[in-house]
Amino acid sequence: MIKNNFIVLVALALLLVFSSAYPQSDREIVDNFKKEYSEIEKQIKNATTLAELNKVVEKITSLKQNYIKHKELLDKSLYPDKYDKSILNLNSAYILRQGDFATIDVLQSEVGELKQQVEFLNQRNNELIAQVRKLEGQTQKDAKTIKKLENLVAELRSSIKERDELVLNMIDSLMPPTMREKDILTDKDKTLVMSEEEKQNVLNNVKTTITDNIRFMQITSLKPDDLNSIREQQNDFANKWQKVGIRLIEVYADDDQKTEELQQIEELFDNWYEAVEMEAWVSISEEFALNGIDLRFFNNGKEFTNSVLMFIDDELKNLGVKSEEESKRVYANFADSTWFATLQPVWMNYLIENKMLTEENKNKMESKIAEWKNALYPSNWWIYLIIALVIITVATFFFIRGRKPKVSDSVSMKE
Amino acid sequence: MKQLIACLITSLLFIVACSTLTLQPANFSWPIESVLPIDSDGNVVEERYSLEFNTAGLFFEEFQDSMAFGGKEMRLIRDNKGYYFMTAISFKNVYVFKAYDGTLTKKNKILINETGMQNPLFNQRDPFIELVDGLTKLNLTNEGIEGGLK
After folding, report:
1. pLDDT averaged over consecutive 10-residue blocks of chain A (415 residues)?
2. Poorest-confidence range of A235-244, B11-20, B99-108?
3. Would an 8 Å CB–CB cutoff place B121 in contact with chain A?
4. Which residues, numbered 33 to 52 in chain B, qualify as contacts with chain A under a Cβ-Cβ cut-off of 8 Å?
5. What does the pLDDT look like over B117-143, one tens digit per residue?
6. Which residues of A touch B137 (CB under 8 A)?
7. Structure pTM?
8. Sequence ranges of the domains in chain B
9. Cβ–Cβ < 8 Å for B58, B81
10. ipTM of this complex
């Protein structure tokens, strides 16, 4: 045993002596340094986790220690940098990369917190939607129920808005700004950005957000102010999606489902836009229906105009058929209670500003309403004209008669 | 006598006026050798020091075959005086050149090994150029091997 150990020790000593005696090329030393330098540089660039990056620190220290004895040679041979500058470059690259991970780490913990809030709000929204549906379903609504319904809708609207904002923040956090600017995300970038925990959730959250907004509009009747606020929110969401959506799909969708996912979300956006536009027409139709006016179905400005014109034409045709009282009641419901009470002051600007209705069509409808009114309440201006003419004629007659001198008076004067 | 002194002073002034301007000290040494691949025409390019030359003549001198450069690499280093030392695998000699008027002119040919070197390499060991081939290690100057071949 002792003999064996002795042989090993001698062999090692010989190897040491031999290796130190063996002449080494300066160029080989420089080349080896460059090679190790490049490898560390590559590892820094390719690190996908902070743990992986931290391993590089040891390598930089080891490179520094191993080559310190060749500092003079390296200073002369490395071009344009020197030994110290090369080590400094590696350290700087490491710190810079560490910064990337720190940002991503912070963003991912933000996402974790946002996720919990979004889940809570999703659940709350579902409950609110169910309650609103239940109340909407009641055939007879007393003042208390209507008040409750209004409160629920307000709560639901604010809750949906809050959830949308959270989802927007989440999208922001999931895609660091530096990654948004890249033309193409490499596999390395994708790994860096992807939060495994969010793989299933992120695209679903976007879909849920849009779907809930559509559902909200389907169960509620909204006013222009609400719709304007929804449009604003919709534009924010759409802009954000345009900026990072494709990137999120690249990172979070499975390879064979990327196109399908993108298509689904784009379709949902289209449906949402359509729902907002449709909501205005539904609300207007409901306003008329509330006053017992059943207009033919319409979902755009042209159809709305045709529907109104057709309704008034029918009423005009029925003037002699229906009783005058009934015709006047329909007119009052249409014009006084709906058109001039709600449609014109509340909706008209919204429709015109959002290019949902043209000025031309608006004027057409208003002329028709005036025509309808005239038919129901004909103006008696010609009677007043005749009376005025008679009065003027009589007055003129007496005036002329009053100024004419008497014949007897003129005779006596001559005498 | 006066005439002699005047003549001496005139000559001295003439010599001083005609001497070449010399900047010194100067050091031309490269810190490490360059290993340069030889292209199909026999040319090598040293990018860091902007040096380019054709090796066909050198291979003819060494092997009597100006096309023997195929697939070889040239090892090249410059000493502090500005002499270029060149060799390659299988060379028996190290060649010493001086740059002059757009050419590299051979100044010396130092015999190292009659059977050809296995894997020669140069190190800068100012004022010498160290030649290493396996276990052989020699200090070279433009005049030959320092202390002679052992």
Report:
1. 57 52 81 94 86 88 93 88 92 85 68 70 76 72 75 79 75 65 67 60 77 78 82 83 77 76 86 86 88 90 94 89 88 92 90 91 93 84 84 88 61 43
2. B11-20
3. yes
4. 33-35, 48
5. 999 999 999 999 999 998 899 999 999
6. 23
7. 0.48
8. 27-145
9. no
10. 0.78
Under an 8 A CB cutoff, do A23 and B35 touch?
no
Q: Which residues of A touch B130 (CB under 8 A)?
A: 23
B135 contacts in chain A (CB < 8 Å): 21-23
Which residue in A17, A20, A22, A27 has the most chain B C-beta atoms within 10 A of its own C-beta, making it the best mutation to test that interface? A27
* Nearest CB to B123 within list A21, A25, A76: A25
d(CA A141, CA A132): 13
A76: nearest CB among B31, B34, B121: B31
